[in-house]
Fold:
Amino acid sequence: MPEEIIIYGYFWIAFKKKDYVNCIPDETGMMIESQAYTEIVSACDAFQRDRRLESLIGLIPQARLYDYGFRSLVGPLEATRARIWEACGRFQGDEKWCVRQVLDQLDELDMLRQLEVPNDFRAITVHFAFYHKALSSIRANLERACASSEYGLDKILWKFNQAMESVTASNGVYVASWNDLEDWRVLHIPDVGLEVVKLIYANRHSLNLATIPNKVSPHKHSNTSEIHFSLEPTDGDEIVGRYRVRVAEPYAVPIRPGDWHAYEQNKNSRPHKLFFLTGSPQLLGWGIVNDRTVTESSKLTLTSLGQGQIQKVGGVLLERAIQDAESQVTNKVFEKELISSSSTDGLTLSVVAIPDSWSDSSPDAIHLVTRGAGELSVLNNRTRVKEGDVFAIPFCMACELQNETGGPLVLLSSILKNS
Structure:
């Protein structure tokens, strides 16, 4: 609680000190996309004047949905920062001042991600208000820099606007896709040899996609749980704790805090695509805190296992599990937990096969569509999802999925339980 008070206090000071107001675009701008968004912005302004909560209460759920959406833009926003830093030395005068402002505001948004999205008025008065003002200011400063720069900021601005619209145009129902990722979003993690795209963030856990040409060095986390899984055939070794497991088909394995883990000896002609769920009640999702110790596999004593022995490390052959779920669907939803929280000290992985429709109110859930397509509804906001899409649902909030295909709509779903 003391840490939260300090951080919330920082954002209050930032509101007062920074000249955000003069940077906010008018109400026809990108940041205002719907009546719901406009109502929440107006409620924020009213609260700044009269400090009354009555007008906020009914808007809290929708504001939390926007907060989750903006929170999940951590990947695009970090990519924006990286591209600006690459060009920063070439800027001069007014354009240099503008991009420095952008970098400062991106750093402040990075601090905001250290706080869980609450289920009370602060979802509006702190989280939504700060996202709205900071993101609007970033956009305005990028536009100013573009007007006077000759160094290709137009593409950065266009990508930034595209990312913002993925949240505002859908009333906060943010959907990422791992099927059509752009190189622009890839972040390089040199100490372990990873290229990572941050796909989606919930309150305390996240889903990310790593691309591994040859190997990723063995490493471990002190306080973070993980689940590694692949949706494509592969040909390599997954290191889990004291074991080296040979894998050739899609799989999933649990990683406890303190367990060494890696992927090595990729014999495929293409890079290995490794999804990793990661979370911690203490440290939140991946990348917010650098909880990582790196070593070499030659320094570890490992027992080799064949693919058929993956259960020995608590793992599962994933494609077989998905096909089994599809075969067991009748007129009711079939759900099965594949990796339990006891295997990871927190994270779970389940398969959900939906014949017609499904409603869920799991706490703080991340879902990935592996088969089919359908309509997702959250707070009467509707959007279409398809194979390869990923979305997160805030705790204390229900979602509904309507299957629009001939076969079952299949999800992989994850929550983070308190250990």
